[in-house]
């Protein structure tokens, strides 16, 4: 880890050890993450590398007790996630570029209903916790986008924060 990453992990650890309810933990971690989005040397060059095949996850830290993980996601232009939800609370912060998030609810277990849309430029943070955390995230700019994600889970073991993906038709918003 870079020295700045060590500082970031310590700030997150201080919050997670308070053992608040998940939504509150996510809010506090978001505030802890926010100032690091303006640190220019936070990531090593290899942690800023994208892959033309898919958005790329670089694991920066997994807490030894599995209570949280920190990753950098690198998105090349046009790259996106599937519609998905999460195993635990999540915090995202845009480090470079612009990301767009489309949130959904599931209708009758058979279709997706779009709800809020959020466009997040560099510096924006967002924290949330299941349930009601179904979304799709994409790079919304013409250059590389990088975001930092903190998950209340052991990504070293799980490999991903995704609980499940939703391959359902999207119906008009009501
Ligand atoms: Fe997500």
Detailed description of the structure:
This protein has helices at 3-16, 22-33, 155-158, and strands at 56-62, 69-75, 84-86, 90-96, 98-107, 111-121, 125-128, 134-139, 145-151, 162-165. It is of the alpha+beta class. It has one domain (3-165): Jelly Rolls, CATH 2.60.120. The strands form three sheets. The protein has a five-stranded antiparallel β-sheet with strand order 1-2-9-4-7, with helices on one face. A hairpin with a 6-residue loop joins strand 1 (56-62) and strand 2 (69-75). The chain starts with a helix and ends in a 9-residue tail after the last strand. The model has no long low-confidence stretch (mean pLDDT 96). Bound molecules: fe (ii) ion. Residues 84, 86, 135, 137 line the site of fe (ii) ion.
Give short descriptive properties of this protein.
five-stranded antiparallel sheet, 3 helices, three-stranded antiparallel sheet, Jelly Rolls, binds fe (ii) ion, globular, 174 residues, alpha+beta
């Amino acid at each position: 880890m870079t020295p700045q990453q060590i500082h970031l992990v310590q700030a997150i650890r201080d919050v997670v050890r308070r053992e608040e309810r998940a939504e509150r933990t996510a809010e506090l971690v978001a505030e802890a993450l926010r100032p690091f989005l303006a640190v220019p040397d936070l990531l090593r060059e290899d942690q800023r590398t994208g892959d033309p095949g898919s958005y790329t996850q670089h694991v920066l830290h997994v807490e030894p007790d599995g209570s949280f993980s920190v990753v950098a996601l690198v998105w090349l232009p046009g790259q996106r996630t599937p519609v998905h939800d999460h195993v635990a609370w999540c915090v995202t912060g845009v480090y470079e570029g612009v990301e767009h998030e489309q949130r959904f609810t599931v209708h009758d277990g058979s279709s997706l209903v779009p709800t809020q849309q959020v466009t997040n430029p560099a510096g924006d943070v967002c924290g949330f916790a299941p349930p009601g955390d179904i979304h799709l995230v994409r790079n919304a700019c013409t250059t590389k986008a990088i975001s930092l994600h903190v998950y209340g889970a052991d990504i070293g073991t799980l490999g991903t924060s995704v609980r499940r993906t939703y391959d359902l038709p999207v119906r008009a918003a009501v």
